[in-house]
Every structure is written in structure tokens, then in C-alpha cells.
Design a protein that fits this description.
The protein has 206 residues and is α/β, with parallel strands linked by helices. The chain has helices at 18-26, 59-67, 86-94, 105-114, 128-138, 143-158, 172-189, 194-201; strands at residues 7-11, 33-35, 39-40, 55-56, 71-77, 80-85, 98-102, 119-124, 165-168. The structure holds guanosine-5'-diphosphate and adenosine-5'-diphosphate (ADP).
């Protein structure tokens, strides 16, 4: 049977640096992950492009997708819907490519119940003040929204124990290296490259 890709799920509180780390990871030479573009009812931020950063849709369209089974998972996060289109993820995994999801914790746990052999990684800040500084520094949300997101962050960090790995985002380069190492290890653990690995070790010649 053709080998199926590995699903990698990255979560963490808003402002911890998920997008920054993911972009740096994708910029690395030789990476072969496919990024799943989420659907959301949130308004685009300046510079965000429909179909690249998110599929920006109305609440009605999102609810239609939910009702017709179009979402792998979805969650309401601070007044907006966010979700992962199911078909693209399945097709891409079936084609043997690894899929990378960057989603909040409730959605990640829904994915876990449907795709148990995914790799679940939680990106966490060095401390809460630093998290707040990053959100303020990014300058894309009002102070009210930032405070809501910080409140949500405590609940999210409590969910960290349901993940396979926790990675502290102190420096972007460090976090990228840690995530790359996790993915390398997981590729071996889930057996998908075991025949290649054994061959590399010389088993074929025994
Ligand atoms: N469950 C779920 N969460 C998502 C999805 N896409 C994005 N999110 C999460 O929704 C939260 C808010 O995203 P966003 O408004 O873009 O803010 P940002 O992550 O702080 O830049 C973040 O925790 C995202 O990781 C998705 O498809 N499903
Ligand atoms: N390791 C880091 N050290 C300092 N600042 C960071 C780090 N990682 C991300 N940032 C900054 O923090 C802000 C939030 O990062 P972002 O990637 O948008 O977070 P998220 O996608 O988790 O909401 C951005 O301004 C980004 O440049």
C-alpha cells in the first residue's frame, strides 16, 4: 500500500509565535510539508490574502460547511469560527505528503480523536509577560481583544498535557530546530520510513 503522509499539528496561545515559527520552518531547505489553509469568519488583517493566509468566508458559508461535513474540525475562538477543510487534508495525506495544521487547542483535540497517529506539538511562551509583549508588539489587535486572548491563553496552556510534545518558543531558530527534530523522530517512530532506514543501516545486504 502506498505510504500515507504524517499529520503534524501545531497549537499554542495567540501571539506565542506559531505563524513566525511555521514560516521559518517552511523556509528551510528540503522541507516537504503541505500547509493546510484554514477557513475563518474573522476579517482579514492588513496584508492577509484570501486563499493564502485563510479562506475568509461569511458565518453562513462556514455553518453550511459544518452541516455538510466539510470540516475535519472547527472551533469558535474569541467570537469567530476557524476550521480545517477535510477533503484537502485527506487527499494530501493519501498522496503521501505530510500535512501541517496550525490550529487552536479545541480543534486539535477533535483532530486527535479522528486521526490518532498525528503528531501533536504545543508551542508555549517563556512566560506570560513575554506573550503579552508579543501580542502588543504585533499590533494587530485592540487592547480588549489582546486581554481576551491572554485570558484564553491560560486555559490553552492547561491543555498542553494532552499534546505529545511541548516546545518553548524562546528564540525562533531554537523552536524551529526542536520541531524539525520531533518530526524526524516521529517519522522513524511511526514506522513509515523503517524500510528505508533498515536499508540505510545495511539490512538488505545481510
Ligand atoms: N480550530 C482551529 N483553530 C484555528 C484554525 N486556524 C487558525 N486557528 C487558530 O485560531 C486562533 C486565532 O487565529 P488568528 O485570528 O489568525 O490569530 P493569531 O493566530 O494570533 O495570528 C489561533 O490560535 C489559530 O491557531 C483552524 O482551522 N481550526
Ligand atoms: N521567539 C520569538 N521571540 C520574539 N518575538 C517573537 C518570537 N516568535 C514570534 N515573535 C513575535 O511575536 C509576535 C506574534 O507572533 P505570531 O507568529 O504572529 O504568533 P501566533 O501565530 O502564535 O499568533 C510577532 O510580532 C512575532 O514577530
Amino acid at each position: 500500500m502506498a505510504k500515507r503522509g504524517v499529520l503534524i499539528v501545531l497549537s499554542g496561545p495567540s501571539g506565542v509565535g506559531k505563524g513566525t515559527v511555521r514560516k521559518a520552518l517552511f523556509d528551510q531547505p528540503g522541507n516537504d510539508f503541505q500547509y493546510s489553509i484554514s477557513m475563518t469568519t474573522r476579517a482579514p488583517r492588513e496584508g492577509e490574502v484570501n486563499g493564502k493566509d485563510y479562506f475568509f468566508v461569511s458565518k453562513e458559508e462556514f455553518e453550511h460547511q459544518i452541516q455538510t461535513g466539510g470540516m475535519l474540525e472547527y472551533a469558535k475562538y474569541v467570537d469567530n469560527y476557524y476550521g480545517t477543510p477535510l477533503k484537502w487534508v485527506n487527499d494530501t495525506l493519501d498522496s503521501g505528503k505530510d500535512v501541517f495544521l496550525e490550529i487552536e487547542v479545541n480543534g486539535a483535540m477533535q483532530v486527535r480523536s479522528r486521526i490518532a497517529d498525528g503528531v501533536f506539538i504545543f508551542l508555549t511562551p517563556p512566560d506570560i509577560m513575554e506573550l503579552k509583549n508579543r501580542l502588543v508588539g504585533r499590533g494587530t489587535e485592540s487592547m480588549d481583544v489582546i486581554n481576551e486572548r491572554i485570558k484564553t491563553a491560560y486555559d490553552e496552556i492547561r491543555m498542553m498535557q494532552n499534546y505529545d510534545y511541548a516546545v518553548v518558543n524562546d528564540e525562533v531558530d531554537n523552536a524551529v530546530e526542536r520541531i524539525k527534530e520531533i518530526i524526524r523522530t516521529e517519522h522513524l517512530r511511526v514506522n513509515r520510513v523503517m524500510p528505508d532506514y533498515l536499508e540505510m543501516l545495511g539490512e538488505a545486504n545481510q
